[in-house]
Design brief:
By secondary structure, this protein is of the alpha+beta class. It has five helices and 13 strands. Helix 1 packs parallel to helix 3. The two termini are 19 Å apart.
Length: 291
């Protein structure tokens, strides 16, 4: 198990890139810009607002892409849009990723529209909440960022983290893992012959948790003699969801991820477990992705 993504989000340096983003996504950007501007003026006159809609690329990603030989199309991950609002009592900073230069334009558009729509909804929900809570005296913050977890000849995995701070911080994460050679979105069920993967993966994670409880004095919300369940307001964790968040790392290993508080105390943040491929070998559809 590892923790990843620190709660203090790193600022991205930005450099301009050409404007060849897919026409559909550009159209969505222009429509969203008009709607958002009108909404801001109506409801947030007292706030200090910075709205950034320029297309940028993470210099680290740019360097990686330029130095790494890639079979098939060279897929880039860009900062498509950023929402940032600051006020005395609250702040929001949402970075919207976009993929570019995929030969499968339908998949590219689907991913980009999903990222845009989810980010806009996240922003709208937060601002509506701030309007409701403006007289509460509390302080609130929301940040959403992304990280390229894997970028090699075959796999591109993008993690999108949301940190919602209202008294205490709550971290959630979603991943998209793409087969760059075949331009396909990989799902967890698609890797396996049948649904037995849920039990196989869950058993391995439970074993890892048990070993860490006994050897490293860590805590997980599972049934174990050394775990105090007094303050846990739900049943102990027992198995993954069929659509559990995951990615495939650069070593070709399956990584299963859990949101903050899902399987461990909140101060652990996001936690993940690397699953040994030999544990999965009998139930894999093929060894194309997992080594």
């Amino acid at each position: 198990m590892k923790k990843h993504f620190t709660k203090a989000q790193e600022e991205y340096n930005r450099i301009p890139v050409p404007k060849e983003l897919d026409d559909v996504v550009n159209k969505a950007l222009m429509q969203g810009r008009k709607k958002k501007k009108k909404w801001y003026l109506a409801g947030l006159a007292a706030a200090t607002i910075l709205f950034v809609s320029s297309l940028n690329i993470n210099p680290t990603v740019a360097s990686t892409l330029s130095e790494t030989p890639i079979i098939g199309s060279i897929v880039k991950v860009l900062t498509f849009r950023e929402y940032e609002v600051t006020d005395e009592k609250f702040s929001v900073d949402i970075k919207v990723p976009a993929v570019q230069d995929m030969e499968n334009s339908s998949l590219e558009t689907t991913l980009n529209e999903k990222y845009l729509e989810e980010s806009q909804q996240l922003f709208n929900d937060f601002m509506a909440k701030m309007e409701d809570e403006k007289d509460s005296g509390g302080n609130f913050a929301l940040s959403s960022d992304y990280e390229v977890k894997t970028d090699n000849e075959q796999i591109l995995s993008i993690g999108r983290l949301v940190v919602d701070v209202a008294g205490s911080a709550q971290q959630t994460i979603q991943y998209d893992t793409i087969d760059k050679e075949n331009e396909l979105l990989i799902t967890l069920p698609s890797l396996f012959k049948d649904e037995s993967y849920v039990e196989v993966i869950s058993e391995n994670i439970l074993n890892q948790m048990t070993n860490m409880i006994e050897n490293e004095e860590l805590t997980f919300w599972i049934s174990h003699p050394d775990v105090n369940m007094q303050y846990l307001r739900r049943d102990p964790w027992g198995k993954i969801q069929p659509d559990q968040q995951f990615y495939i790392n650069n070593d070709g290993k399956l990584v299963i991820s859990f949101d903050e508080s899902a399987v461990a105390p909140a101060y652990y943040g996001i936690v993940w477990f690397e699953i040994p491929t030999e544990v999965l070998s009998d139930i894999l559809v093929s060894n194309t992705y997992l080594k």
